[in-house]
């Protein structure tokens, strides 16, 4: 309940605060008008004139703050769930979503889109991120199971780290070869949400929703898997099938979160730790709380990013790292929070 209340307050702060000063009463009128006039077919200028406000104020709330808030909520929840699933899949409490090479694959795909297609549209970047995440995870899955025929946490981890390092090295080399052309990639990698709108959110939100549903459906089998393979099999769980579903869910969640907000660090690692410290290792309680806490942290980081250097902004990725590092150091030193 405390987390839900914090999320409600932070969501309101995200909608009401920004680099452009808009009166709270005006923000409320704009949001109410947008909710009641959806599907009217009128553009921002017509709606602003109907409300007797400036078009700039209307666009600041509807075209900038609202999609930015939705992106922060969705990306935060997806990262929290992906981190919790990754820690169970690898049986490593310090695992994080990028361990399967998702972030590296997404960045590499964006570079290829710039090189081959001359891409500059956010929608193209989102599509490239999702495709790159799926291809990277598929490659890790094939490498990790090659010759063994089964999925093991050790093989997946090693394959993910190796492939991620290779793709990150190629991406860095290409970026350094032409820094001006790839300057937009630096903005994306920093997690700057000020450059993201509905054209970024709409393609990735359905992917994130499917990942959330799949992750929550895996809570029961994950509880069995944390007891070990033999015990899980004795309890009737299909170990290999569950691991494959975990890999798919992590790809959907981490890929969509990376497409929405860029490679945000620490969040997918920290939120499951906090949730495990509060409710224990039961995945049916841990997963929803991890998603909720991660969304809270992400929205809080986004609000702070707007206020720290107002009227300028700091990328959310930097704020999340500054918040996450000390909290994670404290949490991993707690005996209760250190194990799966």
Automatic annotation (TrEMBL):
Belongs to the binding-protein-dependent transport system permease family. FecCD subfamily. The keyword Iron-sulfur does not apply. This is Iron complex transport system permease protein. Residues 1-25 form the signal peptide. It is found in: Cell membrane. Its main location: membrane. Pfam families: FecCD. It comes from the Bacteria.
């Amino acid at each position: 309940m405390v987390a839900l209340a914090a999320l409600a307050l932070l969501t309101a702060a995200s909608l009401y605060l920004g680099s452009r000063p808009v009166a709270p009463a005006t923000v409320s009128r704009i949001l109410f008008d947008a909710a009641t006039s959806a599907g009217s077919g009128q553009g921002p200028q017509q709606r602003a004139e109907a409300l007797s406000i400036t078009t700039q104020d209307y666009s600041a709330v509807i075209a900038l703050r609202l999609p930015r808030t939705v992106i922060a909520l969705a990306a935060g929840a997806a990262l929290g769930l992906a981190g919790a699933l990754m820690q169970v899949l690898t049986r490593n409490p310090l695992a994080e979503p990028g361990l399967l090479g998702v972030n590296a694959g997404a960045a590499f795909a964006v570079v290829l889109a710039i090189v081959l297609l001359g891409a500059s549209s956010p929608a193209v970047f989102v599509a490239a991120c999702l495709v790159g995440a799926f291809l990277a995870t598929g490659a890790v899955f094939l490498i990790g199971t090659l010759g063994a025929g089964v999925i093991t946490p050790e093989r997946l981890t090693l394959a993910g780290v190796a492939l991620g390092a290779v793709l990150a090295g190629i991406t860095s080399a290409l970026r350094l070869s032409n820094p001006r052309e790839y300057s937009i990639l630096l903005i994306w990698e920093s997690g700057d949400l000020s450059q993201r709108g509905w054209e970024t959110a709409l393609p990735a939100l359905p992917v994130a929703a499917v990942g959330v549903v799949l992750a929550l459906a895996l809570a029961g089998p994950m509880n069995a898997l944390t007891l070990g393979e033999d015990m899980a099999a004795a309890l009737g769980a299909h170990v290999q099938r569950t691991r494959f579903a975990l890999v798919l869910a992590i790809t959907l969640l981490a890929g969509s979160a990376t497409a929405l907000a860029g490679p945000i660090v620490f969040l997918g690692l920290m939120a499951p730790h906090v949730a495990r410290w509060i409710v224990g290792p039961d995945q049916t309680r841990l997963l929803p709380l991890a998603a909720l806490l991660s969304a809270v942290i992400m929205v809080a980081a986004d609000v702070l990013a707007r206020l720290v250097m107002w009227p300028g902004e700091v990328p959310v990725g930097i704020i999340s790292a500054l918040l996450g590092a000390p909290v994670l150091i404290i949490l991993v030193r707690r005996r209760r929070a250190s194990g799966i």
